[in-house]
Design a protein that fits this description.
Blueprint lengths: L5 H13 L2 H8 L3 H15 L4 E4 L2 E4 L1 H26 L6 E7 L1 H18 L3 E7 L13 E4 L9 E15 H7 L5 H4 L4 E4 L7 H7 L7 E5 L2 H9 L4 E5 H4 L5 E4 L6 E9 L1 H4 L2 H16 L1 H4 L2 H7 L1
Parallel strand pairs: 3-4, 3-5, 7-8, 7-9
Antiparallel strand pairs: 1-2, 5-11, 6-9, 6-10, 6-11
Helix pairs in contact: 1-2, 1-3, 1-4, 2-3
């Protein structure tokens, strides 16, 4: 144990967290054979098996559970040291990782970054497109843009705006199938909806309750995949207004009935926010969301349609 380094425990924690060598290897950015050898070496060093293979993946043995508790304490200390060291660096050089949802990360943020890179050429912004909430404490990202208010006490969060979602269909689809004006009208229309991962969302349940079950003809776990399906004329879809506004073939339907608002929160760890490069990106994002407040809420699209 005396010769064990932090990297060995980091590998162990990654496998324990994912229950899979392949997923842990991707997270650690190493090959699966390399990670397998490292885990085997750690088990040999400790003189015990840490994992057992099951149909559900790798599960911790009793000895593995004992090691896990101590490894988590070491991880917290190591991450705290890393954050404090990062905060002491006051140069505007290096990489800043931002986690955003699919739409914001692929369609909105890149358009804002061009001007930022002209001002800060020494910074590399790594965009993590992920609809799940990444772990900022474990430094999966430096800054996260979340569509809900975080509850972790060791994070700081600032509400920077709202994103509004609405119902859309193509002009061709409406010409062939008619324009719904009432909830009863929706029952004759086909729907592009979310996959089972979003099934418990109240907005999704409200939406689907007004369509005939057999009329839900397309589901997707990707927001951009849904948008493509709606643009192809498959049916009526629910989309972020700022995304749909970029496609003139789409028209918004019944905004008085379906107007779902999501809060946008900028989240980071107090330690890393004191880093000059992270603070620069944090301040840039605050300004960018303020500039595009009307766009993200769909107000621009409503004015243009009026």
């Amino acid at each position: 144990m005396s010769d064990m380094d932090w990297s060995a425990l980091r590998d162990f924690l990654a496998v324990a967290k994912t229950g899979s060598l392949s997923r842990a290897a991707r997270d650690l950015k190493i090959s699966q054979p390399t990670l397998s050898r490292r885990v085997a070496a750690l088990e040999e060093q400790l003189g015990t098996r840490l994992f057992v293979r099951t149909p559900r993946g790798l599960l911790l043995t009793d000895d593995g559970e004992s090691v896990l508790e101590g490894a988590r304490r070491v991880e917290q200390e190591a991450l705290s040291i890393e954050r404090k060291a990062d905060a002491s660096q006051q140069t505007l050089n290096g990489t800043v990782r931002i986690s955003l949802t699919e739409g914001l990360g692929t369609m909105w943020l890149p358009q804002k970054l061009a001007a930022f890179h002209l001002q800060q050429p020494g910074l590399c912004v790594e965009v993590l497109v992920d609809n799940r909430a990444v772990d900022l404490v474990r430094r999966e990202a430096d800054i996260a843009v979340r569509m809900f208010r975080p509850t972790q006490a060791d994070l700081i969060a600032k509400r920077v705006g709202d994103v509004v979602m609405g119902l859309y269909a193509t002009k061709d689809y409406l010409a062939k199938n008619g324009r719904p004006e009432t909830l009863e009208d929706l029952k004759s229309h086909t729907l592009v909806s979310f996959d089972e991962s979003m099934g418990a969302n109240p907005a999704v349940q409200k939406l689907e309750s007004n369509f005939m079950r057999e009329k839900i003809v397309h589901r997707a776990g990707s927001f951009l995949g849904q948008l493509s399906a709606t643009r192809a004329g498959i049916g009526v879809g629910v989309h972020d207004c700022y995304l749909a506004a970029g496609y003139p073939e789409l028209e918004r339907l019944m905004p008085q009935w379906f107007h779902h608002r999501l809060e946008v929160w900028l989240v980071t760890h107090p330690d890393v926010r004191r880093s000059a490069r992270i603070r620069a990106v944090y301040d840039f994002l605050c300004e960018a969301f303020a500039q595009d407040r009307a766009l993200l809420m769909g107000e621009d699209a409503l004015r243009n349609a009026a």
